[in-house]
Amino acid sequence: MSKRAQSSARGASGHRITRVDLLKHWLARHRYEATEALRRLLQMPLAALMTLSMLGVALAVPGFLLTLLVNLEQLSPAADLKPQLAVYLKPGIETRRIDVISRELLLRDDLLSVELISSDTGAQEFKQRTELGALLDLFENNPLPAVILIVPRD
Description:
This protein has six helices and three strands; from the N terminus they run H-H-H-E-H-E-H-H-E. It is mainly α and about 150 residues long. The longest helix has about 30 residues.
């Protein structure tokens, strides 16, 4: 027999990778990356502090606004804080067509309320609520469109 046939098999041997091996490797890589990230943060403390401060502000602002909204609702239950949609209609649209649109919206079950504000009513409210009411007098025709305010159901 030749020497080759007598010797044991040579070449690559297979090693089966188990889930435990994969988990150990994953944990080792995460540990290494976490320590490297911490090392980089400690090398540039000012930049790290500014970044962490901005993250804190970005996370705190929505919570602060939600708390403010909840407190305002408790202080003034009469305040209208429900979400609403304002649909601005084309200027010059016929009153009959506006009535048809609002009636179609009133028939929908997914809407809590539908309120029509004519362009004349809008102009009167604009004059009452702002000090810019005299600007409307500069126009020949009322430039404000009719508006349909829609409040959806929860």
